[in-house]
Specification:
522 residues, alpha/beta, Metallo-beta-lactamase, Chain A, seven-stranded mixed sheet, six-stranded antiparallel sheet, 15 helices, globular
């Protein structure tokens, strides 16, 4: 750090109010440390992150919010076909899971399982035992039983139990490692369990896999918004829930309307003034019904989907109905103030990275039925489609050309020349906007377009600056996707180039339903 020839890159979670640099500078205040941050001669870069993914060279890093009173992030590192997950300072989302009930994998714990899925090595918080946990709920740390159960559920190969309780001796830690191994063996699992120890080296060998990580929005952010400018609404919850949530928001100086009427919530969601909504069942009504009503208000013109959290008892959690209603997440009783504060931070941080999500077409269900009737989703590469993206990239001098089918929650690429992923989330897709009309959608510079300027695909990989898409129709006129070209620099298309793009799109339509006569688009 004192060598001017050195360059450092420091990555850490986006804080609440304070930038990452200021947080670290505070830790190095003279009262705690004799050297100030500005004394370093090296060139130091600070990178703030939210959930998502980014790359450093050929290494891919995926980030995921953990459950801790302070905002913490887990890291999944993938390179050369090998994967490592580091998840310290994390508490079970479900108290039952922390108490050692292996069958409890739902909600936040299910998301945690997916984050660690198939890791070659998992370094996981395991400070307590299930017997100790009842006195430690809300402290932000896991039990060894939970770490083992999550690793088995996720198909992890090796788990290093970490964040040992400082009150234990080495012999005590060794004894717990043996208990963890016995727990894994009792299930028939081949999971290898060991205790993380200073100075130990673990070598991971890749298996040659490439591209096995799903596409995720970029986690690197530079938001101009401050959480102090956000507004949290609480409606129809019990007095105890209201007081707890209000205290959690006030602890971080986040503006809150603690006893909002449902009509007020509807108005503020409709006008885009709500940053986060908590809905409960205090009036005996169905909060999923209220959530569905709020989502209906946003379909037409909302710039982003407001996070909606349902507050209630664990027994009333219905994941399937919640997904249908548009629930973002669940907050189940009992929960601590620290837990509520941690979740509140994470939900708001996820919503800070904004862009304009495309509204749903009026004929969405009929359109989706047409997409699935084609029978092309998740099929293998075919030359009859590949030739068109190959011609487009060469003739129009662009690095990326895609044949996109827009499914319910994703846009899937039948051909993806110049792009490594076969699908992306629908809500970040440019093609989701293209299917709203019959004519071309041309975005000359995404950074200058209010719909896309902060889109994760623009500010992060693949760094889209230019997009031109032509809607693709079936023979009966249903719009199922788009044929598009993409560039990483701003540009324009002249009339001849746009006509060529439209001509290629018409040829692609003929391949969607060979032999069918496609209805001409207006």
């Amino acid at each position: 750090m004192f060598d001017a020839a050195n360059e450092w890159h420091i990555y850490g979670p986006r804080g609440l109010g304070q930038p990452l640099r200021d947080v670290l500078a505070g830790q190095m205040d003279y009262a705690y440390f004799p050297v100030a941050l500005n004394a370093f001669a090296a060139n130091v870069h600070f990178h703030e992150i939210v959930e998502g993914a980014f790359s450093i060279g050929d290494t891919r890093i995926t980030t995921h919010y953990l459950n801790h009173p302070a905002l913490t992030v887990g890291y999944r590192i993938e390179a050369d076909g090998a994967s490592l997950v580091y998840a310290s300072d994390h508490e079970p989302h479900s108290a039952d899971a922390g108490h050692g009930h292996a069958e409890v994998v739902e909600g936040g714990d299910a998301a945690h399982v997916e984050f660690i899925r198939d890791a070659d090595l998992l370094i996981h918080d395991a400070q307590y035992t299930a017997e100790e946990y009842p006195d430690k709920v809300g402290w932000g740390h896991s039990t060894i039983e939970y770490a083992v159960d999550m690793a088995i559920a996720a198909g992890v190969k090796r788990v290093a139990l970490y964040h040992h309780d400082p009150g234990r001796s080495d012999d005590a830690v060794d004894g717990l490692i043996e208990i963890a191994r016995a727990r894994a063996a009792a299930t028939g699992s081949v999971l290898q369990v060991f205790g993380a120890a200073e100075g130990e080296t673990v070598e991971l060998e890749g298996d040659g896999r490439e591209g096995f990580a799903p596409f995720l929005p970029s986690s690197l952010v530079n938001p101009t918004d401050d959480l102090a400018k956000e507004l949290v609404l609480i409606a129809n919850v019990t007095a105890e829930d209201r007081d707890m949530l209000a205290a959690a928001a006030e602890a971080d100086e986040i503006p809150i309307l603690a006893d909002a009427s449902l009509e007020t919530v509807k108005d503020m969601v409709r006008t885009g003034r709500a940053s986060l909504v908590f809905l409960g069942d205090a009036d005996g009504g169905d909060p999923l019904h209220y959530c569905r009503e709020l989502r209906a208000l946003q379909n037409a013109d909302a710039e982003h989907q407001t996070p909606i959290i349902i507050v209630g008892d664990q027994a009333n959690v219905d994941i399937e109905r919640g997904e249908e209603a548009g629930v973002t997440d669940w907050l189940t009783r009992p929960y601590s103030l620290q837990y509520a504060r941690s979740r509140l931070r994470a939900w708001l941080m996820r919503s800070m990275f904004r862009w304009r999500k495309a509204p749903l077409p009026r004929d969405e269900e009929e359109r989706l039925a047409a997409v699935h009737r084609l029978g092309l989703l998740d099929t293998e590469i075919e030359e009859r489609f590949e030739r068109h993206t190959r011609i487009a990239t060469a003739a129009l001098d662009v690095p990326i050309a895609l044949i996109t089918l827009v499914d319910r929650d994703r846009q899937w690429f039948k051909s993806h020349r110049g792009f490594d992923f076969s699908e992306t989330p629908r809500d970040i897709g440019f093609c989701s906007h293209a299917i709203l009309g019959d004519g071309p959608l041309v975005v000359g510079d995404a950074l200058q377009d209010d719909r896309f300027a902060e889109n994760p695909a623009v500010v992060g990989d693949p760094r889209v600056r230019f997009y031109a898409g032509i809607p693709l129709h079936t023979a009966d006129g249903a719009c199922v996707g788009a044929f598009c070209i993409v560039d990483r620099k701003p540009r324009t298309l002249n009339a001849a180039q746009l006509k060529m793009l439209q001509d290629i799109a018409r040829l692609v339509e003929e391949e969607l339903e060979p032999g069918a006569v496609v209805k001409a688009a207006s």
